[in-house]
């Protein structure tokens, strides 16, 4: 029996995890750079840069929801591809990648049109205040109109990672982040002979960087993974392959869309507390997402190996691998989340001079240590169950508890009970830990055996 003591598996995990970690960190940095740079923008208006950050933060919450829509095809395709690679099914792999790219292109163009033409309507629906609408609509319209590039990038990156080629998306993301930082510096503040465009400059730089990322990934994907998609392989249309992608992708999207829309609902509640609370949420969320990147990278790398093992029908080895991944992810996340709590005051002091935001944000970071325990369980169990083919269970649990506990408790604790955004974070804590317990029990029950797709 192949176990995690096998040095080949441990080497593969390290080889996959490290570039995925860097890639995810830099993708997160792409949005965070806008927040950091805009936090130092001198607007000359009441509320200053904190209001700008609040507006862009609400935009990014909405864009996160859009990116989850783009991910549901790429996530399903990545898992199917990993199992097909494990089973040695090259032709079926090419079919899956081809139809997935086509679907993401169609979805991306449709969503981009909606974001461009309905920017104000969407932000008004989310309760953005009139004084923030100008900056919010400008940023959303520009980044949203070109968001279809991200739809294709997510699929190309997922395809490369499933084939153990994670280093290429990482390298692209390094280049793109450098370009984005330079673009932000030039266009936000007006350097290198360019005008100071503020929020509009940040949006142009970010959108252009995502477009360049897609172009580079497409070139690499063609040269290093799949050079062509023979049309005769798609005649008749491979409905069975599409069915396999959707079998994983739709439940994965259902769970994550439920999570993201629940966060949008909670952000609506936070917005009702005022611009200060919304800015606090934006600063804290941007810091905490760098805690999450460790568990996300370890789990994504591990899920590829679990998918390979399931494709080879080595399910006991997949279970052992999964447990090894979970322990590593939990240990690293606890260290990083505790470090953030200790350093939180100094980090927030760099981002803002508002004492209320700094004090509240520091408390949130300490709450997030306990929250991170449940978050690791959810990210691990949800992703790894999907990689085995057991995709429906996590979405059912997610929808029930994200809305019942996360949204319900956040509203009650935050508004009627008067605990504000701190109370809402306690609601997040309860949701993540309850779901985490339930999903981990599912993983250890081994009920996911026999749900593989490479048949």
Summarize the structure in words.
With 455 residues, the protein is an all-alpha fold. Helix content is 83%, strand content 0%. The chain contains 14 helices and no strands. It is globular.
Features:
single chain; 455 residues; mainly alpha; 14 helices; 83% helix; globular; disordered N terminus
The separation of the N and C termini measures 22 Å
Shape: globular
Overall structural class, as computed from helix and strand content, comes to mainly alpha
Outline the biggest β-sheet.
none
The helix/strand order is HHHHHHHHHHHHHH
Mean pLDDT: 83
Quick one: how many beta strands?
A: 0
Helix count, DSSP H or I runs of 4 or more residues: 14
Sheet-strand content, in percent, reads under 5%
Summarize it.
This protein is mostly helical and 455 residues long. It is 83% helix and 0% strand.
Which helices and strands, and how do they pair?
Blueprint lengths: L6 H32 L9 H40 L2 H28 L1 H7 L4 H16 L2 H15 L4 H23 L9 H26 L14 H35 L1 H37 L3 H37 L3 H34 L3 H23 L5 H26 L10
């Amino acid at each position: 029996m192949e176990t995690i003591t096998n040095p080949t598996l441990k080497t593969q995990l390290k080889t996959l995890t490290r570039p995925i970690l860097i890639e995810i960190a830099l993708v997160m940095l792409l949005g965070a750079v806008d927040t950091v740079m805009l936090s130092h923008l001198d607007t000359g208006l009441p509320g200053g840069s904190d209001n700008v950050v609040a507006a862009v933060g609400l935009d990014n919450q909405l864009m996160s929801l859009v990116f989850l829509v783009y991910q549901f095809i790429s996530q399903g395709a990545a898992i199917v591809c990993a199992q097909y690679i494990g089973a040695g099914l090259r032709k079926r792999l090419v079919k899956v990648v081809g139809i997935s790219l086509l679907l993401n292109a169609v979805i991306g163009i449709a969503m981009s049109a909606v974001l461009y033409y309905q920017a104000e309507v969407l932000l008004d629906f989310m309760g953005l205040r009139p004084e923030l609408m100008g900056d919010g609509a400008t940023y959303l319209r520009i980044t949203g109109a070109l968001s279809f590039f991200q739809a294709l990038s997510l699929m190309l990156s997922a395809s490369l990672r499933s084939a153990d080629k994670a280093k290429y998306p990482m390298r692209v993301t390094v280049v793109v982040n450098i370009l984005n930082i330079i673009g932000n510096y030039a266009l936000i503040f007006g350097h290198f002979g360019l005008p100071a465009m503020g929020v509009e400059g940040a949006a142009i730089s970010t959108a252009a960087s995502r477009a360049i990322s897609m172009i580079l990934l497409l070139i690499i994907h063609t040269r290093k993974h799949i050079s062509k998609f023979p049309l005769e392989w798609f005649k008749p249309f491979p409905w069975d392959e599409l069915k396999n992608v959707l079998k994983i992708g739709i439940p994965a999207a259902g769970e994550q869309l439920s999570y993201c829309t629940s966060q949008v609902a909670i952000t609506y509640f936070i917005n009702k507390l005022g611009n200060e609370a919304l800015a606090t949420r934006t600063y804290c969320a941007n810091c905490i997402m760098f805690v999450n990147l460790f568990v996300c990278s370890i789990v994504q790398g591990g899920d590829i190996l679990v998918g390979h093992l399931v494709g080879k029908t080595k399910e006991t080895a997949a279970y052992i691998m999964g447990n090894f991944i979970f322990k590593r992810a939990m240990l690293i996340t606890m260290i990083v989340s505790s470090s953030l709590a200790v350093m939180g005051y100094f980090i927030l002091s760099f981002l803002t001079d508002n004492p209320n935001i700094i004090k509240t944000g520091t408390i949130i970071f300490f709450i997030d240590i306990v929250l991170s325990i449940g978050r690791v369980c959810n990210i691990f169990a949800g992703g790894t169950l999907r990689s085995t083919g057991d995709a429906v269970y996590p979405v059912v649990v997610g929808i029930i508890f994200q809305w019942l506990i996360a949204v319900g408790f956040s509203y009650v604790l935050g508004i009627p009970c008067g605990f504000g955004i701190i109370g809402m974070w306690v609601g997040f804590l309860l949701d993540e830990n309850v779901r985490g317990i339930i999903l981990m029990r599912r993983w250890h029950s081994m009920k996911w055996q026999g749900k593989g797709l490479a048949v």
